[in-house]
Amino acid sequence: MPDILIVEDEGVIRRALRNLLEDNGFHVAEALSVTDAEEQYQIDAFDLVISELRLPGPPGTELIQRHQAPVLILTSYASIKSAVEAIHLGAADYIAKPFNHDELLYSVRRILDRHRLERQNAALKSDIQRDYPVAGIIGRCPAMQGVFEWIHRTAPINAPVLILGEPGTGKELLARAIHEHSPRRDAPLIAVSCAAIPAQRIETELFGHETGAAGEAADAREGLVEAANGGSLFLDEIGELPPAAQTHLLRVLETGELPRPGSSRSPRVDIRLIAATHRDLAQRVRQSHFREDLLRLLQATGIKLPALRERGEDIVELAEYMLDKACKRLNHAPMRFAAEAWEAIRRYHWPGNVRELENAVERAVILNEGRIVTAELLALNTAAERDAESGEIEGPANMSLDDYFLYFVLSNQDKLSETEMARRLGISRKSLWERRQRLGIPKPRGRRGGPQAKAD
After folding, report:
1. pLDDT digits (tens, 9 = 90+) for 417-455
2. How far is residue 352's CA from residue 424's CA, in Å, rounded to a whole number?
3. Cα distance between residue 379 and residue 426, in whole Å
4. Which CATH number fits domain 3-126: 3.40.50.300, 2.60.40.200, 3.20.14.10, 3.40.50.2300?
5. Going by C-beta distance under 8 Å and a sequence separation of 6 or more, which residues neighbour residue 195?
6. 129-141 residue pLDDT tens
7. 142-306 shares the fold of 3-126
8. What's the gap between Cα 198 and its chain centre?
9. Which CATH code is given to the segment(s) 142-306?
10. What is the CA radius of gyration of the chain?
11. Average pLDDT, integer, range 304-310
């Protein structure tokens, strides 16, 4: 039951407020002035303070300046000026007398809901910052400790960065951590998935175009590289970048000049490139799909994120963290994993890595009506794993990621929807479609394709 303090010197108003709030389930305390309130109570122990603006002694706005509890200001002297002043000082809301009961109750509940969320977020942020050297990235295994050390060593410098790792290992999260720990933290971080933009459009998206450029709209357009000027540009799946775009990007990195299709001028830009891929770029170079000089530039400062199956007991901490986060986000009572759920989590191969774990945990919370997460709710025993366990194929641990994806899709596309296959793989439907295109796996006849399809 929320605790509310009323600071009001008029007895009739004070009693009316108390009756209204208590009738609606709130616990109420009273004071006649700011001084009286501070002498009787620990103000910050209250969930909300409702205070008259004009009181004997200090005004009600003093409570805003002296304490952390949210303050709702009431006043008989309604004016735009006093409202603006109260809000400017930090009042949670402002209501003039005589007030409408429904309006006041709505304001009270809105303030309490917002304050509760702020406290939860502050507590979660404090827990993360206490336990982990990089906020939002969890890991105690030696490989992740090496990642944290690399972040602190790499973030302050201005060199391009290359992040390697399987899909779902947290490459974008790592890119954001690098940006937030860098001198560019107050400038923008522009994130782009090279695999999500059609090859014929990606040069325009990245580098923009001038007025009347061939095949483009009449007006000039700023590209994403220019939008990142002064900050960081994160290119996810850089291995999918077409050769011409690679050439333009190399020019930006080496000279700071931005090539602009349709123009002879080259504006100057200052960006820090953070690139990521799950592809073997050295192999892409041998296949003439990636520039060797661009790879050399990126490799100077690079790291590989470990797969979830390589992180040992980190998975326990990650699962607990994700379960707690999902329960709070979905407004579910606290839950815990059953013993057989822990066994399933530890045994599973996790081809979709951390993203797949988060999807599985969130699904279990959504479907769960109780307090225990069972192995059945996690739904980790996929058809591909059952076949692997029966010996019909080589186990997933001995397969490449693309081989596993190919086998899983071909084995399940006749009995699972695209949505369900994407969920079990721990990726989005859009990523599933993109990988189908890249690996040349057509959908069976009669099933709609493309990332925008709403049904299978």
Report:
1. 888 888 777 677 877 887 887 776 777 655 544 443 433
2. 8
3. 12
4. 3.40.50.2300
5. 236, 237, 240, 431, 434, 438
6. 444 446 568 888 9
7. yes
8. 25
9. 3.40.50.300
10. 28
11. 93
